[in-house]
Amino acid sequence: MSDLRIINLEKQYSQTPKKKNPAFSLKPVDLTINEGEFFSLLGPSGCGKTTLLKLVAGLVQPDAGEIWIGDANITAVPPEARRFAMVFQQSLLFPHMTVEDNVGFGLKMQKIGKKQRLAQARDMLVHVGLDGFGSRFPDQLSGGQQQRVALARALVSNPRVLLMDEPFSALDPGLREEMRDLLSRIHKEFRVTVLFVTHDREEAFHLSDRIGVMSEGRLLQVGKAKDIYEQPESKKVARFLGLKNIIEGNVANGRFASMDQAIEFPVGESIKSGASYMVLRPEMLKAAHRHDLQSPDSLYLRGTIQQLRFNHGFYTATVQVEGHQLESHFSNQEAEGMAVGQEILLVVELDAIHLTSE
Fold this sequence. Notes:
Blueprint: E1 4-12, E2 25-33, E3 38-42, H1 49-57, E4 64-69, E5 72-73, E6 84-87, H2 99-103, H3 105-109, H4 114-127, H5 143-156, E7 161-165, H6 173-190, E8 193-198, H7 201-207, E9 210-215, E10 218-223, H8 225-230, H9 235-240, E11 245-252, E12 255-258, E13 264-266, E14 274-280, E15 286-287, E16 298-311, E17 314-321, E18 324-330, H10 332-335, E19 343-349, E20 354-356
Parallel strand pairs: 3-8, 3-9, 6-7, 7-8
Antiparallel strand pairs: 1-2, 1-4, 4-5, 9-10, 11-12, 11-14, 12-13, 14-20, 15-19, 16-17, 16-19, 17-18
């Protein structure tokens, strides 16, 4: 197996006199990316995800730690000898070369004959949906088509790892969705190992087998999209994933209580006492009917609708519950009859409430 192993990798950047920003450091990263896996590094700008990508690529040398591919330690191996390919935010195509010459350029550097490399380039253009575009020049292509060429150029040399740094961030939303679908199909077809950098949650969730969430130079959590979303290991992860219903409190004597004591419920024996954060996913908060029998396995919250807005096929309601604003999702049918200023009783099953640390 040619898994990519990152072992306690660190990088420290010193502050320069001309820059007012504090010095950045990538804290020790320990990570294994399985052969054929699509792995995304997800985090805000400046969190260290591109630094980690550059370390893996060999474009930056680490201060400590090692990088292995299979049984080979490649920490000191130069970038051109790693057999990795990289796709950047910009396509970086050679403007004086045709599309097929751009795609075959890496093969040319490998001393592969012209006839063979052009045949491989044309075949790869078919895979990325650009059959018949080989004789064109980059300035005759749209931005999305240029990124397809860049992807074809990266894949044609059969890389051990494909590194992608926000490759679709410059495209408009429609093209981004189109390119995501293409990349997902290409990955399934070629089973190349992909390390993908993005700040876009939807992009990471759409594409990835697993995701690593980063913040301030630290790898905070690694897992499948569903697991990270439903069970964030910290308040910071939950917030970056767009979860807004996060309430600070304490666990004591088998119960969670918010700081203002307005929300309280029993917790399982496995939950440790001490400071904690309650995370409520908005889709798990439902409107309860007053005539329903209240279940001991559910938490009921009475509040007032502050805002109600349509959002991609459903409604998002902001509900004031004591000193807390909670977000809940309702279908079109459920939202019928709801109005701003209306009192509402919300219900959530206790086992759908997640408690996490700071």
